[in-house]
């Protein structure tokens, strides 16, 4: 469709020379009022994917919600586009990497609809507890069914939350206000922040699920949360339990949920989000929407007047700034370093980001995660040695660490962290970072060395830069030497003959190719005190085996590796 094919009422009067903004979804007029005096705004009532592709080249800004798919194809055709603005949080419908490659800034509103999402969760909680929609439906059909629709009180019941971030924490506070006992599982949350909201943190799902009268998930949809609740997990819950989803379709397995409702494993569900929106006609999601034990809404979590005002003003003011040549406040793909610092700091920014991400993923295996506080609420020491100790502006390095620590646990992949907002994001998660410049290091083998340590434990990672390449030289109590890139399997094992054969056999069986292997021995003088229990006699023989692999390393592979004789612990890390 050419631009002229849009109906006249879809477009505001135009001044040809003004930059053009395309808004294919319903966005609150409050923010648009900031833009309309300066720009030509087009709001087509419906726009197909091919229409979008055809007209995008003439636009300078694109403002969207969750329905418009901004693909790599659209972005490479968008010759004049400076910004894609998401009036909301999730950017799962935008190819952010393609935007970055095309020099297009992606902005969002990280907090504008948090209250709305939390309140919608409570609305679904009360609706499923008290059969509100069923009562309403029955009355409309001329019924007066009282005994059939007896509900349960939520006061005194246990509300279990998975994901104690911005929305989860608000839901927790509201639950406490309703007289509920609130427990939560979030390995990366701050224990202090949880305690301040009267939430008891538990370490594992298996501890959380059997206690839940109501279960609600508020995590992003990422590799570790896809199908987080499926048949096995549902079977450990009370058969009176009811579950809620105002996060993203896919955190509950929809087929498993349907089966659990049909066979009485659990009692009900309140659902706002689905794996495909709207649900495909013959899908499990479509059956869930029609199920008598389900209350369903069409992704209304953020649909309040107030939230839409907030997100609209948030993103429209950023569009205004960007089209006038300024810097936005919430860029999802903002660079960590300014061009003038790029050559000197870029390898270290990359190294420290990878060290942070390695930390979060390596230490989050069940064996090592404590009840909360794996990342959130933790104090870290970031120690610069050698030439790096002389650098005074370490803001990009600090930001790189915050980005690395949070990248594997957020739906933006940490891309929204920049040098301006990194201290704020760290504060929100209760992360404290002490930077130390140690220029007096003796016997340093590398020109510069960076060490990341979590205080109060043995968790430590060191790394260095050589040319343009980055390396990890220490992981835990082990001297290592490997490149922190791609998919890595880190095996903590007894250094005994036959290990490589066994591990290779398992990987080969699953079609996983090994690209490199590195063995890390205990550092000189390292004792055997460790988070993982080791055999006293074999303790001196511990080692780490680090495998760089190609192929999908699923949970089954991890389980098989974990069962292998002499393997103490396994972590799969994607860097
Ligand atoms: N339905 C709606 O309209 C609507 C509105 C707003 C937000 N959302 C969605 O709600 C979700 C939460 O948003 P938010 O702003 O609170 O995000 P957030 O990033 O502030 O919080 C997410 C939390 O999940 C935790 N987490 C990550 N991986 C985990 C895991 N494997 N196990 C347990 N916890 C884990 C993180 O530590 C973090 O505390 C997002 O998916 C967002 O897109 C939906
Ligand atoms: O990611 C979000 O902000 C929410 O899921 C809301 O999406 P929406 O703007 O399409 O309502």
UniProtKB/TrEMBL annotation:
The record's listing under PROSITE patterns reads:
D_2_HYDROXYACID_DH_2
Q: Where is this region: Disordered?
A: 1-22
Domain D-isomer specific 2-hydroxyacid dehydrogenase catalytic, by residue range, is 21-333
Fetch the InterPro entries from UniProt.
ACT-like_dom_sf (IPR045865), ASB_dom_sf (IPR029009), D-isomer_2_OHA_DH_cat_dom (IPR006139), D-isomer_DH_CS (IPR029753), D-isomer_DH_NAD-bd (IPR006140), NAD(P)-bd_dom_sf (IPR036291), PGDH (IPR006236), PGDH_ASB_dom (IPR045626)
Catalyzed chemical reaction(s): (2R)-3-phosphoglycerate + NAD(+) = 3-phosphooxypyruvate + NADH + H(+)
Domain D-isomer specific 2-hydroxyacid dehydrogenase NAD-binding spans what residues? 122-301
UniProt keywords (A-Z) are: Acetylation, Amino-acid biosynthesis, NAD, Oxidoreductase, Phosphoprotein, Serine biosynthesis
Give residue ranges for domain D-3-phosphoglycerate dehydrogenase ASB: 344-468
Q: What is its EC number?
A: 1.1.1.95
Judged by the first EC level, this protein's enzyme class is oxidoreductase
For this protein, the record's Pfam families field holds: 2-Hacid_dh, 2-Hacid_dh_C, PGDH_inter
Q: Does the keyword Oxidoreductase belong to this entry?
A: yes
Pathway(s) the chain acts in = Amino-acid biosynthesis; L-serine biosynthesis; L-serine from 3-phospho-D-glycerate: step 1/3
Q: GO MF terms on file?
A: NAD binding; phosphoglycerate dehydrogenase activity
Q: Name one GO biological process term.
A: L-serine biosynthetic process
Subunit and interaction comment: Homotetramer.
Question: What family classification does the UniProt entry report for this protein?
Answer: Belongs to the D-isomer specific 2-hydroxyacid dehydrogenase family.
Name of the protein in question: D-3-phosphoglycerate dehydrogenase
């Amino acid at each position: 469709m050419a631009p002229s094919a849009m109906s006249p009422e879809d477009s505001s009067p135009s001044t040809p020379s003004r930059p053009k903004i395309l808004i294919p979804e319903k966005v609150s007029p409050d923010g648009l009022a900031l833009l309309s005096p300066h720009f030509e705004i087009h709001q087509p009532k419906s726009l197909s994917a091919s229409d979008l592709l055809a007209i995008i080249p003439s636009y300078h800004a694109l403002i969207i919600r969750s329905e418009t798919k901004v693909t790599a194809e659209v972005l490479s055709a968008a010759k004049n586009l400076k910004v894609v603005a998401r009036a909301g949080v999730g950017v799962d419908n935008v190819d952010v990497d393609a935007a970055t490659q095309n020099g297009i800034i992606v902005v969002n509103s990280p907090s504008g609809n948090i209250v709305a999402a939390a309140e919608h969760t409570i609305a679904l909680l009360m609706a499923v507890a008290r059969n509100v929609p069923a009562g309403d439906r029955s009355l409309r059909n001329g019924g007066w069914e009282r005994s059939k629709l007896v509900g349960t009180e939520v006061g005194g019941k246990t509300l279990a939350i998975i994901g104690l971030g911005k929305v989860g924490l608000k839901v927790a506070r509201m639950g406490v206000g309703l007289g509920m006992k609130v427990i939560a599982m979030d390995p990366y949350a701050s224990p202090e922040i949880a305690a301040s909201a009267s939430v008891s943190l538990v370490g594992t799902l298996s501890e959380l699920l059997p206690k839940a009268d109501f279960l609600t998930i508020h995590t992003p949809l990422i590799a570790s949360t896809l199908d987080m609740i499926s048949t096995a997990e549902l079977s450990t819950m009370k058969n009176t339990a009811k579950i809620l989803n105002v996060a993203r379709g896919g955190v509950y397995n929809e087929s498993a949920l349907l089966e659990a409702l049909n066979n009485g494993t659990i009692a009900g569900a309140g659902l706002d989000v689905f794996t495909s929106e709207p649900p495909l006609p013959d899908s499990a999601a479509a059956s869930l929407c029609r199920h008598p034990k389900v209350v369903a809404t069409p992704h209304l979590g953020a649909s309040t007047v107030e939230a839409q005002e907030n997100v609209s003003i948030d993103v429209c003011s950023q569009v205004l700034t960007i089209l006038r040549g300024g810097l936005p406040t919430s860029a999802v793909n903002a660079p960590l370093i300014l061009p003038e610092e790029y050559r000197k700091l870029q390898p270290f920014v990359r190294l420290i980001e990878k060290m942070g991400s390695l930390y979060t993923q390596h230490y989050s295996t069940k064996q090592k995660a404590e009840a909360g506080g794996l990342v959130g609420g933790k104090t870290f020491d970031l120690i610069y040695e050698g030439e790096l100790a002389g650098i005074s502006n370490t803001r990009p390095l600090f930001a790189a660490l915050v980005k690395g620590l949070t990248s594997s646990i957020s739906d933006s992949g940490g891309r929204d962290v920049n040098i301006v907002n990194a201290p704020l994001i760290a504060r929100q998660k209760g992360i404290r970072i002490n930077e130390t410049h140690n220029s007096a290091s003796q016997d340093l083998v590398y020109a510069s060395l960076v060490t990341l340590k979590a205080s109060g434990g043995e968790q430590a990672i060191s790394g260095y830069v050589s040319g343009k390449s980055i390396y990890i030289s220490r992981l835990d109590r082990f001297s290592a030497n490997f490149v922190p890139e791609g998919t890595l399997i880190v095996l903590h094992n007894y250094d005994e003959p036959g290990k490589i054969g066994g591990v290779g056999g398992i990987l080969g069986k699953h079609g996983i190719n090994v690209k490199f292997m590195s063995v890390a021995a205990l550092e000189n003088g390292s004792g055997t005190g460790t988070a993982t229990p080791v055999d006293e006699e074999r303790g001196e023989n511990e080692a780490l085996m680090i495998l760089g692999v190609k192929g999908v390393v699923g949970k089954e592979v991890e389980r098989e590796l974990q069962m292998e004789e002499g393997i103490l612990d396994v972590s799969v890390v994607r860097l």
